[in-house]
Write a structure and sequence with these properties.
This protein has 395 residues and is α/β, with parallel strands linked by helices. The chain contains 16 helices and twelve strands. Strands 1, 2, 3, 4, 5, 6 and 12 form a seven-stranded mixed beta sheet that branches. Strands 9-8-7-10-11 form a five-stranded mixed beta sheet, sandwiched between helices. The protein binds adenosine-5'-diphosphate and magnesium ion (MG).
């Protein structure tokens, strides 16, 4: 026996959402109280934490992504380790919120992406794309005693899609508007954007990854300043823009690649950073940080100019993710998007730090109701699937 039927019949559910993004700055864990499903979804945020990875784990995962000596045993074991850590994060957010774990109905976990390569490659006579999120959902379910939905990207990849971005459906649920065209931007490690034309239906939603968000800034700040990130953009603000470096970065093929498109450390990881640093040998360290920070905003703008401008005038740009705290990114966005209002999701009652974790809590609910959260236009899949695998708990 499981309590799946009971959960479905509840009017209000406590759901935990879990994600660690490409920045790997910690596991975001949110607790929400949710009502309804699909377009009728509404929720209240009860608690939010960022639960740190143990020292050294982020660095080791980055090495693994860069294919530095790794065994199958280690990858397999890290899958269970991250499951344990995500489980701990879920328990901790309940404790911090003062809600007993026995009250929680469901967990939605994105996991930790370690590889994302949706482009199909020939393999033994088959054409195969792939994505891999670690953080075994069964481990999370067993550790917490809470039914857990995980692995949201694989069904979309199996249908020929990018498996990303998945946030546009959440943006559609929460930010669509009758009278204005909205763009919803998340600046995590990678930045992704959702376009919601006024009065849109799900099928009208456009969305894609724009390019690097914070991940280049983080890694270069680490190499040049021994800092995990550029707090509030303070280093960048001291720097001078290098037009040469900016022009070099503008040539990155991902920028002009036609959507659907998604990205990760495969495109903007160690190899690309080496190229940037080689190009910048004669620049001051601050000028490099300034220019790559500017590039984060410019990449968003160039994508909109190239792929959206002729179809849609963006009235409002609503921003979330850690990048909201970087003053230079926000100022540069305001500079490029002169005729658009630029705001944080905070103004709409959605914490910019918790937004993606909330989305995966909402998505776990959608999985139970059998509602597809992927959008064909966005991921390029040949059908919209019910995403997520459900790990149940015996009563
Ligand atoms: N105070 C801050 N100032 C500047 N940047 C920040 C600040 N706080 C967080 N960030 C940036 O946000 C990143 C985390 O953003 P997040 O939305 O969690 O990304 P991801 O989804 O990739 O984990 C950090 O790695 C850092 O670059
Ligand atoms: Mg994060």
């Amino acid at each position: 026996m499981t309590n799946l039927g009971k959960i479905l019949n509840k009017k209000e559910k406590y759901i935990v959402g879990l994600i660690s993004g490409t920045s790997m700055d910690g596991v975001d864990a949110v607790l929400i109280k949710l009502k309804g499903c699909a377009e009728k979804t509404s929720f209240k945020q009860i608690g939010f934490i960022t639960y740190p990875y143990p020292p050294g784990l982020k660095e080791r995962i980055i090495e693994i992504i860069s294919s530095i000596k790794v065994s199958l045993d280690e990858i397999s074991r890290i899958n269970f380790l991250i499951g344990e850590i995500f489980g701990e994060a879920a328990l901790r957010v309940c404790q911090k919120s003062g809600v007993a774990v026995s009250e929680i109905d469901l967990i939605g976990s994105h996991g930790q992406t370690i590889w994302h390569s949706p482009m199909k490659e020939e393999m033994f006579g088959h054409k195969i794309g792939t994505t891999l999120q670690l953080g075994e959902p069964s481990t999370i379910a067993v550790k917490t005693g809470i039914p857990t939905v995980g692995d949201f990207r694989t069904a979309d990849i199996s249908s020929g899609g990018e498996g990303a971005p998945l946030i546009p459906y959440f943006d559609y649920l929460m930010f669509r508007d009758k009278s204005e065209n909205r763009a919803i931007l998340n600046i995590g490690g990678i930045s992704n954007i959702t376009l919601l034309p006024k009065n849109c239906k799900k099928k009208d939603v456009i969305g894609f990854d724009c390019g690097p968000g914070n991940l280049l800034i983080d890694q270069i700040a680490k190499l040049l300043f021994q800092k995990d990130f550029d707090k509030n953009g303070n280093i960048a603000i001291k720097g001078k823009l290098s037009v040469e470096l900016l022009n070099f970065m503008k040539k990155h093929p991902f920028l002009m690649k036609k959507p659907p498109k998604s990205s990760g450390r495969e495109e903007f990881g160690d190899d690309y950073i080496k190229k940037i640093l080689k190009f910048s040998e004669k620049l001051r360290k601050e000028d490099i940080i300034k220019t790559i920070t500017e590039f984060t905003a410019l990449a968003v703008y160039l994508n909109i100019q190239k792929f959206i401008k002729d179809r849609l005038k963006v009235d409002r740009l609503i921003v979330s993710g850690g990048g909201v705290k970087n003053k230079l990114i926000i100022n540069s966005l305001k500079k490029y998007f002169k005729e658009t209002k630029v705001e944080s999701t905070e103004k709409y009652g959605i914490s910019p730090d918790a937004k993606e974790a909330i989305a995966f809590a909402v998505y776990a609910n959608e999985t139970l109701y059998g509602n597809p959260i992927s959008i064909k236009n966005v991921t390029g899949a040949n059908r919209e699937n019910i995403l997520g695998k459900i790990c149940l708990i015996s009563l």
